[in-house]
Amino acid sequence: MTVAVDLHPNLDAETRRGIAEDLRILALLHDTPPTAELIATLREDDLQHFFALPLVSERGREALDFVRAALAETSMRCDPVGLDEIAADHAAIYLNNTHRVSPSESPWIDPEGLMAQEPMFQVRDWYRHWGLATPDWRKRTDDHLVVQLGFLAHLLDTVDADAALVDAARFLDRHLLRWYPTFAERVVDRCWTAYWAAVAHLTAVHLETLRDRLARIEGCERIEIEPIEEEKRRRREVAIEETCASARAYAPGQEATW
Length: 258
Fold this sequence. Notes:
Layout: H1 13-31, H2 36-44, H3 58-75, H4 80-94, H5 106-109, H6 118-129, H7 145-157, H8 161-190, H9 194-214, H10 228-249
Helix pairs in contact: 1-7, 1-9, 2-3, 3-9, 7-8, 8-9
């Protein structure tokens, strides 16, 4: 009989469920503009204990201070005009590409910056492996930030903890942590309101903290992934070579004609 070995004593079922809830909260924050009630709730709560995953590193404390300052500024603008400004900034980030910061992975990886490219199909395979699928990829692509956060939450919440935690680590390495930190930096630089800068930065710190926590588990060590710019260059070279090969295969005047 095979005896199960606990490879993650520091991530018991209760802790995993708590971190999964963290990820769902972060997904919700990115998904929709806040209400005045949500801003008041976040401001009143002790953010140091708001998340199940402790953000106690220097970077984590700085991120929480950033959020507190943003909430203090935002709470003073919770009138209809202020909330409309936050909603317009949300649309500029997540809906109409005004800030040029796509919330989906493909444009960050694809050499031409196109939506719904290879990364979308890669993450779709991850979801399929765990019996999941997006409701309608045309409305929200599989590689969208909110969908990827939801998938991570599912992995942290699953009963098959050993395999799920390994996949969570690999998914972070191969997908979210390849593009999200750059997304967050650009949101901070380009957004109009402190609220969205704080949400973007807090999520980046939470994901890095989670990856550090997972790295302590056997089989979840960090892996080196090809840098995005190198991958783009390699894929451009492949595309050029394929185009040239197609041109060489068809040489006008050398084929039989009518």
